[in-house]
């Protein structure tokens, strides 16, 4: 059985490693410098490693589609902790605009988004419209040449840092639930928009409430057809779940866990010497390898243009469970010091807390299980849940 990418791709992987080795970490050693990140992203784009599917006229690499090379680049960048030029909302809206946007929308937004001059937030979830996204009530009314928007969004990631929002709104209030929804682009730096950060238990302010009070956006900021925004949304969600399901994050987290298990002492010996810890590490590594080869299987199907159907949902669900297991073992290794909210172990405390939210982010685990059950296994639909996102 051949589980590798093959000689051509092995050579490409070495080429990418050589490039990263020459450009990252930066000469001054400052990994958090915006200038250093920007310089790396520009060099990697010019070399054809980043923004590969985006035409050059929009600032991309304009490379031929190659899922194998894209996966190798993602793995090597993650392994080196090098910038990938991706801001969460930006990585969702750009492919959506390429697929559904007008030429004017592409010209106006894609290049500034790749440069980081425009930062996007995703305006989907609302109170009482999270998993059941089609229940959203934020409305937009076309008045003359403007949309007038009223309503509320919640759990809006990085809205306090964003300049714009791609937003689902109800434009045909009398239409059936999934119909009458439109996809708008909104400048959120205007008087009719209030962004209120939500403080998490990690003490970070990643999520926000966003209120629209007669906010405005031009009529031509509609993406796709009026009342057909649900179809546009499917493109955005596809990219969101694909990004979250990446195995590279889990691999990086596991390497950190093993390193920490070697450094932390339990009863005068490194924690990794503890039989129970070793057994759990081995079990996690087994799950991780399962996730890795399942991801390669999906990649192989993509490379051969074969539809994998609901299989693409499984890695995200699996990774959610795995992240929780890794975080819980880290908590057990740290033991009483886990309550010390400082020092190098703070990273693991935050990871544990974040792992609790991963079963909600990017499509809840129960929704993922429903999709697998109904579309993958052909089980009857759970009518009590209504129409899910």
Describe the structure.
There is one protein chain. It contains eleven helices and ten strands. Helix 7 runs antiparallel to helix 8, helix 8 packs antiparallel against helix 9 (314-334) and helix 9 packs antiparallel against helix 10. The chain is α+β, with helices and mostly antiparallel strands and 389 residues long. The chain has helices spanning 7-23, 34-46, 67-80, 88-100, 103-115, 229-244, 247-263, 275-303, 314-334, 346-357, 365-376, and strands spanning 120-123, 139-143, 146-153, 164-170, 181-187, 193-198, 207-218, 222-223, 265-266, 269-270. 46% of the residues lie in helices and 14% in strands. The mean pLDDT is 85. The strands form three sheets. Strands 1-4-5-8 form a four-stranded mixed β-sheet. Strands 2-3-7-6 form a four-stranded antiparallel β-sheet, with no helix packed on it. The two termini are 38 Å apart.
Summarize this, please?
The protein has helices spanning 7-23, 34-46, 67-80, 88-100, 103-115, 229-244, 247-263, 275-303, 314-334, 346-357, 365-376, and strands at 120-123, 139-143, 146-153, 164-170, 181-187, 193-198, 207-218, 222-223, 265-266, 269-270. By secondary structure, the chain is an alpha+beta fold.
- Uncertain runs with pLDDT below 50, 5 residues or more? none
Count of strand segments: 10
Indicate the overall shape. globular
Helicity, as a percent range: 40-55%
Outline the fold blueprint:
Blueprint: H1 7-23, H2 34-46, H3 67-80, H4 88-100, H5 103-115, E1 120-123, E2 139-143, E3 146-153, E4 164-170, E5 181-187, E6 193-198, E7 207-218, E8 222-223, H6 229-244, H7 247-263, E9 265-266, E10 269-270, H8 275-303, H9 314-334, H10 346-357, H11 365-376
Parallel strand pairs: 1-4
Antiparallel strand pairs: 2-3, 3-7, 4-5, 5-8, 6-7, 9-10
Helix pairs in contact: 1-3, 4-5, 4-6, 7-8, 7-9, 8-9, 9-10, 9-11
């Amino acid at each position: 059985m051949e589980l590798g990418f093959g000689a051509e791709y092995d050579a490409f992987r070495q080429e990418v490693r050589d490039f990263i080795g020459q450009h990252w970490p930066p000469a001054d050693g400052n990994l958090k410098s915006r200038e250093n990140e920007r310089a790396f992203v520009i060099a990697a784009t010019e070399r054809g490693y980043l923004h590969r599917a985006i035409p050059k006229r929009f600032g991309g690499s304009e490379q031929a589609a190659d899922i194998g090379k894209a996966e190798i680049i993602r793995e090597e960048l993650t392994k080196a902790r090098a910038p990938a030029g991706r801001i969460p909302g930006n990585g969702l809206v750009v492919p959506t605009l390429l697929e559904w946007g007008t030429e004017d929308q592409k010209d106006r937004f894609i290049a500034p988004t790749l440069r980081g001059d425009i930062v996007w937030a995703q305006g989907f979830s609302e109170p009482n419209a999270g998993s059941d996204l089609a229940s959203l009530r934020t409305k937009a009314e076309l008045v003359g040449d403007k949309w007038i928007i009223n309503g509320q969004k919640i759990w809006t990631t990085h809205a306090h840092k964003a300049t714009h929002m791609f937003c689902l709104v109800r434009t045909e209030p009398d239409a059936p639930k999934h119909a009458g929804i439109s996809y708008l682009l909104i400048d959120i730096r205007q008087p009719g928009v209030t962004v209120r950060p939500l403080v998490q238990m990690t003490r970070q302010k990643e999520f926000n409430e966003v209120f629209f009070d007669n906010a405005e956006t031009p009529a031509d900021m509609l993406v796709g057809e009026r009342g057909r925004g649900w179809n546009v949304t499917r493109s955005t969600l596809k990219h969101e779940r694909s990004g979250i399901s990446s195995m590279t994050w889990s691999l990086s987290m596991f390497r950190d866990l093993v390193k920490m298990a070697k450094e932390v002492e339990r009863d005068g010996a490194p924690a990794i010497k503890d039989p129970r810890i070793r057994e759990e590490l081995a079990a996690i590594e087994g799950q991780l390898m399962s996730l890795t080869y399942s991801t390669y299987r999906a990649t192989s199907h993509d490379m051969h243009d074969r539809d994998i159907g609901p299989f693409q949902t499984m890695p995200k669900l699996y990774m959610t469970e795995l992240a929780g297991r890794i975080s819980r073992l880290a908590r057990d290794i740290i033991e009483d010091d886990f309550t010390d909210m400082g020092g190098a172990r703070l990273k693991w405390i935050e990871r544990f807390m974040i792992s609790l939210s991963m079963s909600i982010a990017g499509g809840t685990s129960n929704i993922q299980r429903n999709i697998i059950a109904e579309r993958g296994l052909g089980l009857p639909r759970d009518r009590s849940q209504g129409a899910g996102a």
